[in-house]
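FIELD: query
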Amino acid sequence: MIALCALLVLSRQSTPTQVKGLIDPGRCRIRIPIAGREYTLLVDTGNQGSHLRRDVKAQILRDDPAATLTLGSGSVPVKGLDTGDSTIYDEYPPIEGILGMDVLADLVIGIDYRNKNLVILPTGGGDWIGRDATAVPLLYEEDTTCPYVATQFGTSVLDTGATVSLMPKDATSSASIVKTRITRPLELFDASPGDVTLAIATKLEVADRTLFCAPVLLSDVADRGVVAPSLLADRIVIDLADRQLWRPAKTRSATTLCQALSLLFRERVFEDKGGLYLDASLAGLPKKEFAKIVSVNGRTAADLLALFERRDPKAPEIMRNMFNALRTGCKAVMQAGSNRFTMVLKAS
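FIELD: result
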């Protein structure tokens, strides 16, 4: 299930406008009006240019040959957009195009993953984050308009279109990478060949933070890594106008655990008041009621939270065992009201 979110557009000249959107862990889709119709596009800071599906571009130009793709103060003519094929168009729910850096380059983007909001801010980002907000500079290179952040494996693209972070091939031999047995084809917009292995980074250095037990994909061919913003905090601001990344001063220990469990369940998992919950509609549950996670692969939710809170050196191996269990069936005990039931999670 993909949960509803809202996009609040506050361009430097305009009044606030509410735009419908969709969000899952790390991947934000929004509804954009073009030539009298609405289309679902992926907000993607990892792509220099915007793209449209071939049939969608043709429909838009039939409606209006002079149509533009616009978000806030960013705008490009539709007639010049690329229509190359990509497996990204096979996703569900489907997208009809990508908002790249040709549209996003001067915007200030705030993402609240926990409350499913994406906001285009008029300026800055500290006030939206809160009083404990801190900022680090975004990095840029001469041959690209995409933002980068530093990691111990070199600079990596900060990609709002990524669900999970991707480590480059140079990370394969790192002692900080704990590999699982889960491997699948690499899925990039340009359909680059190769495979990725699900892994746990025991210590992942990103900008000025060291993240504990972070779930990542390990590539066998990629020269550059990709960092999913959802890995850094539940609430961030990517200030592309002033080239800064804002987030809370302290990284919550549950953030990387929830992202790992989200990959395990293939649904968003969140922490609330010391409990872990599955943000998905399950048969028999009232609307807006979340199923509480009691245990996964024999480990209670309280135990998992404590492992991450104290940065227990056993945590990476425990998480690897959970992911490896997907091959035959990883059991998760859930609680909904007075009902307790078991889910069996398997790799697709």
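FIELD: remark
The first helix runs from residue 54 to 63.
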